[in-house]
């Protein structure tokens, strides 16, 4: 039996942990080591593997401190772009790895970075900066098509997939959604609920894919209302809508993560 935990670090990152009943765990995207080690010691948890999704400092900078702190070997998995961060198993699309007696499938999900990968073991999805609750990661190097395809791939997973993304951007993302859907009562209620969570010091994450398909416009790029709202032709493709929406999000106040 595994359970999921998250550790807030830096400004708005989460480091995710999957822990088994014996206290052995996987650390996902440790952007710093001190806070993670402190909590692991307090809980008496021991890392046996680290999963990296992509090569941004807020996801990889803690690897060195963690592997140096423990006196036994910890396997570090990651895409090729993270190879300089103590990775000893480089992963690519279609790979499967077994850790803590569970199989994780590796999806190549570029767009935010050119080599971003995502880890999936039903029902957990560790998607780094690909999708967030209510939004998606920033696009670097013009990779709109890549990000669009990555989101399409993730949207094909089961509805009750648990979305473990790396940043607490939900409120800002939902404000963006409400800008386009000002009369959607369900989204307004969800926003209020998440606002309350934040006000009492709780996270809005993880989310579920079934919610994201309602509150996250980046999963709804084929819908006519969005094309109309964006002033686009009704024959515009999902990719064209996605690109327009992502550019608008940059001006709306996206953080570059
Ligand atoms: Fe990030
Ligand atoms: Fe990133």
From TrEMBL:
Alphabetical UniProt keywords: Hydrolase, Metal-binding, Zinc
Organism superkingdom: Bacteria
GO BP terms, alphabetized: methylglyoxal catabolic process to D-lactate via S-lactoyl-glutathione
Cleavable signal peptide: none
Catalysis performed (reactions): an S-(2-hydroxyacyl)glutathione + H2O = a 2-hydroxy carboxylate + glutathione + H(+)
GO MF annotation terms: hydroxyacylglutathione hydrolase activity; metal ion binding
Cofactor binding note from Swiss-Prot or TrEMBL: Binds 2 Zn(2+) ions per subunit.
Residues given in the record as Zn(2+) 1 binding sites: 54, 56, 112, 129
Binding residue positions for Zn(2+) 2: 58-59, 129, 167
Enzyme class: hydrolase
UniProt-listed InterPro entries: Clx_II_MBL, Glyoxalase_II_hydrolase, HAGH_C, Hydroxyacylglutathione_Hdrlase, Metallo-B-lactamas, RibonucZ/Hydroxyglut_hydro
Function per UniProt: Thiolesterase that catalyzes the hydrolysis of S-D-lactoyl-glutathione to form glutathione and D-lactic acid.
Subunit comment: Monomer.
Family per record: Belongs to the metallo-beta-lactamase superfamily. Glyoxalase II family.
Protein name: Hydroxyacylglutathione hydrolase
């Amino acid at each position: 039996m595994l359970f999921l935990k998250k550790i807030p670090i830096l400004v708005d990152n989460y480091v995710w942990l999957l822990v088994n009943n014996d206290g052995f765990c996987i650390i996902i995207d440790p952007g710093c080591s001190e806070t993670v080690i402190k909590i692991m010691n307090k809980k008496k948890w021991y890392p046996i593997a680290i999963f990296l999704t992509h090569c941004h400092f807020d996801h990889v900078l803690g690897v060195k401190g963690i592997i140096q702190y423990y006196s036994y070997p910890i396997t570090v998995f990651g895409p090729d772009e993270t190879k300089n961060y103590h990775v000893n198993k480089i992963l690519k699309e279609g790979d499967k790895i077994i850790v803590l007696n569970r199989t994780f499938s590796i999806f190549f999900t570029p767009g935010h970075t050119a080599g971003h990968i995502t880890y999936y073991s039903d029902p957990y999805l560790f998607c780094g900066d690909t999708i967030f609750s209510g939004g998606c990661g920033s696009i670097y190097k013009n990779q709109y098509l890549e990000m669009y395809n990555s989101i399409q791939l993730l949207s094909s997973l089961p509805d009750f997939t648990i979305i473990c993304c790396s940043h607490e951007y939900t409120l800002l993302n939902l404000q963006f959604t409400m800008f386009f859907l000002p009369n959607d009562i369900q989204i307004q209620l969800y926003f209020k609920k998440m606002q309350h969570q934040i006000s009492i010091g709780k996270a809005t994450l993880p989310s579920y894919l079934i919610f994201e398909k309602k509150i996250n416009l980046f999963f709804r790029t084929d819908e006519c209302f969005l094309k109309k709202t964006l002033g686009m032709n009704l024959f515009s493709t999902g990719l064209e809508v996605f690109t327009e929406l992502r550019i608008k999000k940059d001006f709306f106040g996206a953080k570059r993560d």
